[in-house]
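## retry 2 of 3
previous attempt timed out at serialization; input unchanged, resubmitting
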Amino acid sequence: MKQPPALWKVRARSLEEARLAVRRGNPEGLHDLRVALRRLAATATALRRPRLARQATRLAKSLSRPRQLEVDRQLLERIGRLGLLSPDAITALAARWDKTKGRAARRLARASDGRKMSRLRRRLARLVRQGSGNGLKRLTAARAEAEAALSRSLEGRDDATLHRYRLAVKRARYLADDLSTLGLPEPADAARERALQETLGRWNDLRVFRKHLAASKADAEWRGTVTLAREVERLLAVLEPAVASAREAAVAASRPAGRVLPMRSAARARA
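## retry succeeded, writing output
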């Protein structure tokens, strides 16, 4: 069975590949770098390397806004193809959001090549050289704890709980990947967790996009751009059921396998 030094090497290699993707201007570079940092944070937390975990988490968080800007632009392009907004409104919103593009690019450059990244890479390189014995027990315990956090359904929970649950799903999946790297089989809940991550991610993207659209509407009203404000208001009304549907799908995916719905809920589900 592979030892944790091999696991640290995997994390170091993933981080370096993501950094190179950012340097090359790869469209997926930002996403890959955030994932590599969050995976590293999960591994470091499980293997009791809190300083490394904090460094990786802070860098990943610094990239949240640039990543959301990418997601917003992708959704805006899709809405344009569907004809839900006029070309003028699409252009106006894109221009408004692109004002933060330079700031996002600077954040990405600092995260991938700045001093904080350099310190993190040096710390990770020392772990690769030194090794740390067999951390299988700690990883297994951390994975069991992560699984337990996902054992309850999201029914009746608020958005903040759904958001925390989404992050917990990611952590559980990252730890499962660590155990797989060490030679263990895929957990039985892996398929459920993939579905959870996908549905919760879709819901989160839509709700944050809606929030940014609402801010754009308020800005348009303040500036007296009445036509744009009205178009965005209509789009928000269209998005409302889509966000609700994505939320319902996430809640449904969170139900433990084999759970029986109450009779009244089951009747609604069949309708």
